[in-house]
Specification:
heterodimer; A: 77 residues; alpha+beta; SH3 type barrels; five-stranded antiparallel β-sheet; 2 helices; B: 747 residues; alpha/beta; Rossmann fold; seven-stranded mixed β-sheet; two-stranded antiparallel sheet; 33 helices; 60% helix; iron (chain A)
Chain lengths: 77, 747
């Protein structure tokens, strides 16, 4: 299963699961990063990190560490 | 479903049992970040909000008021948040205010929740938690102008029906819907009681049973009833603030809660993931079929503008340009204004001088009061200009991009991108820099940023650097003709603070502020033109906060230093000389005047020598000797603890020039150069000058900064800590500089 952090710019995917039960995982879910939600990778910061995504109509930035806690599946699979 | 708050139930008459009978009502204001909440708050309450702190936390208490239809409504602003799950004591304040259990906050009659109407899916998450509180609520769909602009259709009437609360579309920026909102608030406090607001049943039965068991158990053990909302939080927030507080009462509840959670997990109700699952499900159901967005809104690519501003190459270039412009503006635009304030200060001093005879009272008014107020007000132009920039950058949406671009670099020190702008601002002045840390939500990151901000080389250090460099650093050319040693030394001192801040921040993050790094989950709001009203409001708010809160304390410190420098000397002779000088009988520029002036300088210097401040200087001489300083530098440094730029004036006085000198005064430079120890050795040489500069680079000599720190952290602990660590650092730095420098000279 690919991780959200592995998507390339322009890739679209669907969130499978958010790893963990700590406050970071909760924060991600409160921001709308939920299973079955479609997500698109739209860019990265000039130094390579953090990354930028579009999810439920919003642009959200995540660091690689945080994005790698989210498993996704590509829509065609 | 009936809509609570509709006039059908009661006929608008208050004083039904259980309702407030007095005319002032309190309404809490809450909302997600980036929803225009503070703009709406200002639009409703005007500019006269009272600002204070809740006891024991860093949360600012902001209360505004408005009158409408004969009712007085108090608005209590709560910090912007994505959810009401309190993870820290600071976040608990909002929950307490809403539950009516917060100290120094009166019980509320209702809450208005501000959401971004263009993004209801996400924003209704917080609102579903608000509904769980079971208090009278209104949903405010802000940014309605954007909804219209983007051709989004929202069925407000049906949304009201489904939610069972009043829904009011507004645009705070354009002033749309404000009267409607005011009248709904008035009708909410007149017609609604808590009984009308029953929380929707979101969670499965197994969860509700567990919650009831928990409520019973907690009441049995602690004797205190646990409100519905807190019981939910206790069960849902693993290691949250509710858990911490309840376990403080009874540690043994830990296993009881753990058992409930395991049991729930086995019933397909995993804690804590169940909460976002059921709430977002509720949001989806509630909004189903109510919102239609045109195709292109759903599918817009990343904005073209955004693409450029976060571009691999152009992003940083633009960022550097903005930072340079901001920095430059603070320096150059503030200059004339600061000069104007200073001349106003001089004019009022002259005015008092003409009015009063020389004496202690006049000295208090001129040197203490006018000088003290002046030392506060003179910072205002820089603060206002910095906040003008920050407000524009924030309002147009660039600020979060700046954090996004700088994050990688700042994580090396253990901070996040959000610390960059406050630290950069501290280069102009640490006061607005510290105030700008409000944008950092993570408490640990915010405190570390506040604690290292005063190390950045602020503009008040410049006079000291210029004086010392001009007097003692030879202006040789290096590498051809246009690189001068003086410029290089100035540059080194400019970056010294930032270089020292790196290990300090790292250490603080490893010790006191240890913990998992704050996540960088941040919304990048879409770009929009900044609104003049919003920008003006913010600049005014911050400037007022500075003058009102820090101003009084800075002023007091200045008066104390004035008194230490004035007493206990006998000022009779000096007053006589002053009276002669001002009497109008002596011709200006005549030899008689020069003689009197010289007499005045000598008298002033000897009075300072005998004052409490002068005595303290002599007393600390053994301490400052190892830094290469004589007692006079010691006094200068002591007197400049409230404000470092005071050193120039004090050195002037002590090296018997009288107080009115600035760093460009050739006489002061010459006096410093010719100053001698009692054994005939010159006081100053290059190592001494460098040692003084290092001390000023690293020391917390700014009462105003410490006061602002106290205000922003709501505790004396952190200003005291900053003061201690910076003074120690400054002393050691100056000691090393002088001792190593002397080795070179002797060797």
């Amino acid at each position: 299963m690919p991780l959200l952090s592995e998507l390339r710019e322009g890739d679209q995917a669907i969130i499978e699961s958010v790893d963990g039960t700590d406050s970071i995982a909760m924060r991600l879910m409160e921001m709308g990063l939920l299973p079955e939600e479609p997500i698109e990778m739209i860019g990265r910061a000039p130094l390579g990190d953090p990354l930028e995504y579009r999810v439920s109509g919003c642009q959200i930035s995540l660091r690689k560490v945080e994005a790698s806690r989210i498993s996704v599946r590509l829509p065609t699979q | 479903m009936t809509v609570p708050g509709s006039k059908s139930e009661t006929t608008g008459k208050p004083a039904v049992s259980g309702k407030k009978t007095h005319t002032s009502h309190a309404i809490a204001v809450i909302g997600n970040p980036n929803t225009g909440k503070s703009t709406l708050f200002n639009a409703l309450a005007g500019m006269n909000a009272q600002v204070g702190n809740y006891p024991g936390v860093t949360v600012e208490k902001k209360v505004g008021r408005f009158r409408f239809q004969g009712r007085e409504i108090q608005l209590i602003d709560l910090p912007g948040t994505y959810s009401l799950s309190p993870r820290t004591a600071d976040e608990m304040v909002s929950v307490r205010v809403l539950l009516g259990t917060q100290k120094k906050a009166e019980p509320i009659d209702g809450v208005i929740c501000i959401v971004d109407a263009t993004n209801l899916d996400r924003n209704l998450y917080l609102f579903s938690q608000i509904l769980d509180l079971g208090i009278p609520a209104i949903l405010v769909l802000n940014m309605w102008d954007e909804v219209l602009k983007r051709d989004i259709a929202i069925d407000v009437q049906e949304l009201e029906n489904r939610l069972g609360v009043k829904v009011v579309p507004t645009s705070a920026r354009k002033g749309i819907g404000l009267d409607k909102l005011k009248s709904e608030i008035v009708s909410l406090v007149e017609n609604c009681s808590k009984a009308d607001f029953i929380p929707p049943k979101l969670f499965p039965d197994s969860f509700r049973e567990a919650k009831e068991q928990l409520q019973e158990e907690v009441e049995k053990r602690t004797g205190l009833p646990l409100p519905h909302f807190l019981a939910e939080r206790l069960l849902l927030d693993v290691h949250g603030e509710t858990e911490r507080e309840v376990l403080k009462e009874d540690q043994s509840l830990n296993s009881f809660i753990a058992n409930l959670r395991t049991e729930l997990a086995s019933k397909d109700c995993p804690i804590p993931a169940i909460e976002p699952r059921v709430r977002y499900q509720w949001v989806k159901q509630t909004l189903d079929g109510l919102v239609t967005k045109p195709e292109q809104v759903l599918k817009t690519k990343k904005d073209t503008l955004d693409q450029w501003l976060t571009h691999r190459f152009w992003g940083p270039v633009f960022f550097a340009a903005i930072m340079f412009l901001m920095f430059q503006a603070i320096y150059t635009w503030a200059g004339p204004l600061m000069d104007a304030i200073e001349s106003l200060q001089e004019m009022s001093a002259d005015f008092v001088m003409d009015l009063m005879a020389p004496g202690a009272l006049r000295s208090l008014i001129i040197d203490g009061l006018i000088g003290g107020v002046g030392s506060v007000v003179v910072f205002l132009p820089q603060i206002a200009i910095l906040f003008l920039f920050i407000a524009i950058l924030e309002d147009c949406g660039y600020m979060s991009r700046a954090a996004y671009i700088m994050d990688r670099l700042m994580t090396r020190v253990g901070l996040s991108g959000k610390s960059f702008v406050p630290l950069m601002s501290s280069y102009a002045c640490a006061i607005p820099g510290i105030m700008a840390t409000r944008t950092i939500e993570d408490r640990k990151d915010r405190f570390v940023t506040i604690l290292v901000a005063p190390l950045m080389s602020c503009s008040a250090r410049l006079p000291v650097y210029l004086l010392m460099i001009n007097a003692f650093i030879p202006n040789d050319s290096l590498f051809g003709t246009w690189i001068k040693t003086q410029a290089i030394v100035l540059f080194i001192f400019y970056i010294l603070g930032a270089v020292v801040a790196v290990p300090i921040a790292w250490l603080l993050k490893k010790t006191w502020f240890k913990g998992e790094p704050a996540p960088f989950v941040m919304e990048l709001p879409s770009f929009k033109l900044p609104s003049i009203r919003v920008v003006f409001d913010r600049v005014y708010d911050r400037s007022k906060a500075f003058v009102m809160r820090a101003g009084t304390l800075i002023f007091l410190t200045t008066v104390v230093v004035w008194a230490a420098g004035y007493f206990p000397g006998d000022h009779q002779k000096l007053d006589q000389v002053d009276a002669q000088l001002e009497g109008g009988t002596i011709e200006e520029g005549s030899p008689a005047e020069d003689q009197l002036q010289e007499q005045r300088r000598v008298l002033a210097a000897s009075l300072l020598n005998e004052s409490f401040l002068g005595r303290a200087g002599h007393a600390i001489e053994p301490v400052v000797r190892p830094l290469g300083w004589d007692w006079r530098i010691g006094v200068g440094v002591l007197a400049s603890f409230p404000a470092r730029e005071v050193i120039v004036g004090t050195l002037g006085t002590i090296y018997s020039l009288g107080g009115d000198v600035d760093e460009e005064d050739p006489q002061l430079r010459d006096r410093l150069k010719s100053a001698r120890h009692s054994n005939g050795e010159p006081v100053f040489n290059i190592p001494v000058a460098l040692s003084v500069m290092v001390f000023f680079a690293l020391c917390a000599q700014c009462g105003a900064t410490l006061m602002v720190m106290r205000r922003e952290t709501n505790s004396w602990k952190w200003p005291i800590f900053s003061f201690t660590y910076m003074t120690t650092l400054a002393y050691l730095g100056a000691l090393l500089t002088y001792q190593i420098g002397m080795l070179f000279i002797k060797g």
